[in-house]
From TrEMBL:
It comes from Aquincola agrisoli. Belongs to the SsuE family. The gene is msuE. One of its GO terms (molecular function) is oxidoreductase activity. Pfam families: FMN_red. Residues 6-149 form the NADPH-dependent FMN reductase-like domain. Keywords: Flavoprotein, FMN, Oxidoreductase. This is FMN reductase. It comes from the Bacteria.
């Protein structure tokens, strides 16, 4: 039997109702359909009281510390953020600021974001990708960006977006196939 891959989905939404959550769920569903997985979803809106006042990992509540462990031990991290003023949300960044600089070395990360219009699409490559490059993570080459026009209210309503999700999931699968669950490609190669 194949060991399921541990996937941690970090959703940068700051409210309960969110297109970011819908996008994250669509990616999680596509990953679940493509691979044997164990999913853990971390929502910034729910984590805020546990991470917002922490200046260092040792300042975290048990819930905040568990969130960091879920990211650090994932075989694949899916990072999904809404676009706020041309970048990811502040609490989303704060959560990753609490990680050790070596926590994601060689770890595959699938990047996704959503914003009001297509003019924010470059946030993935100009904001998210450099963040994970700092951690020396292996970002999936195809990222996913969704504009408001890709949704009907809070329902994903775009075949083009579904195709982008499928492409990114295929690339994530290829990165995961090159490693065994729990293994970091770069750490094992050294």
């Amino acid at each position: 039997m194949t060991t399921p891959h541990r996937i941690t989905v970090v959703v940068g939404n700051t409210g309960e109702r969110s297109r970011t959550k819908v996008l994250a769920q669509a990616i999680a569903d596509a990953l679940s359909a493509a691979l044997p997985v164990t999913l853990q979803v971390l929502e910034i809106a729910k984590l805020a009281p546990h991470i917002g006042v922490a200046n260092a990992p040792q300042d975290l509540s048990p819930e905040g510390a568990a969130a960091l462990r879920a990211i650090e031990t994932a075989d694949l991290v899916v990072a999904v953020s809404p676009v706020y003023k041309g970048s990811y949300s502040g609490l989303f960044k704060h959560l990753f600021d609490l990680l050790s600089p070596d926590a994601l070395v060689g770890r595959p990360v699938l990047l996704a974001a959503n914003g009001g219009s297509d003019r924010h699409a470059l946030v993935v490559d100009h904001q998210l990708r450099p963040l994970f490059a700092f951690f020396r993570a292996l970002t999936v080459p195809s990222a996913v960006y969704a504009a408001a026009s890709d949704f009907d209210g809070y329902v994903l309503d775009s075949e083009a977006l579904r195709a982008r999700i499928d492409e990114a999931v295929l690339q994530a699968r290829l990165l995961l196939a090159a490693r065994t669950p729990g293994q970091s490609l770069l750490r094992e190669a050294a």
